[in-house]
Give the backbone structure.
Amino acid sequence: MPSPAKVQPPRLPPGFDADKLTDPQEAAKVADWVEKEYAGSPQPESVRMLVAILRKGAQIGGQDGWFRPAETRYTWKWLVGQQGLAADAKALPAGKFHGSPALFDRLDRDGDGAITPGDLDWSDRNPDVQQLGMVSRLFRRMNTAGNGKLTREDLDEFFKKAARGKDHITPDDLRLLLYPRGGYLPGDMPSTPMFTRGFLAGEIGSMSEGPRPGVATPDFTLKTVDGKDTVTLSKLVGPKPVVLVFGNFTCGPFRALYPEVEAVHDRFKDDATFLMVYVREAHPTNGWVMASNTRAGVAVKQPTSFTERVDVCKQFCQKLKPAMPVVVDEIDDPVNTLYSGVPARLYVIDTKGRVAYQSGRGPFGFRAGEMEQALAMCLLETKPAKEPASAPVGRAPADR
């Protein structure tokens, strides 16, 4: 596999010293210098991210820097046209849906028996997405094992932490544990120097931006984690859509959300090909170390050889038990560079080998439900139904 072109990090001022960024004024000076350096030309995502880190530090949010919404060619307008509805249609009821009940079920997110634009809206302003964010945050606080699966022991431990010696939990107790001061779990908040070094090391994200919808997917060949086989992407493309899952062991949100991806795999493993690509660690012990990882038994240095990366990937497999095939990126990160996969990302590739869906960057943009809807519409496009199928009766959101 030919090595991809090296993506250069943002230019830095002469004499740059990350240790000096503890001073907000020094960080602001560097941000000003970087912005002037790129004035008059479009800023790459990496430049926007560096400036956001320098100006906001650990308080960076899901709409700052290089964090942006997913990109997909499957929109409400696309679905209306594919289903033969009028361009101004506001809803697609079950009885008029050309496709299987299983596909309708995944697109009808609120379970009311009709697909609407709101069901396909994954923006941060959508109430369902906001609720999903709160649930995910609560889940991570409760899942002390860090394996994406809650146990009775997790629940008991969470109660003890929230109650703080009492026999009950108040709403304020829950709020303090769910939204701690600073927004981070104890020991997880990075200093601006640590955040910046993690960025420059390519641990919190790739400097590349990855292929957008409509672009032919870059090919690659990687070894499986057990070393018994190799997988070439171009050999997977064609018969079925392909879902690429990028992630790593030390990204806590990825571990928490990965079981949702496995659930999509379980539902659609006969209709699509799934492949996980294991990439560079986001929070190694010699980088932006997170105490929540250590408490969950996840403590590894950044691998410096392919063999070391395989060993860490095996730890991931032992803890998360993925059912889909897992391949491991080479130590110089060629596939991560091609796809901008660190710390976590999702792609749907159509049967012609083009990108149909690119998720936002993890952790904020890693949404299995959004990917699943893109996959469902890709399947509609691949095998369009001529007549409406007998669709299921709508269910309440709580039943999903």
Notes: Residues 126-382 form a domain with the Glutaredoxin fold (CATH 3.40.30.10). Residues 391-400 have pLDDT under 50 and may be disordered.
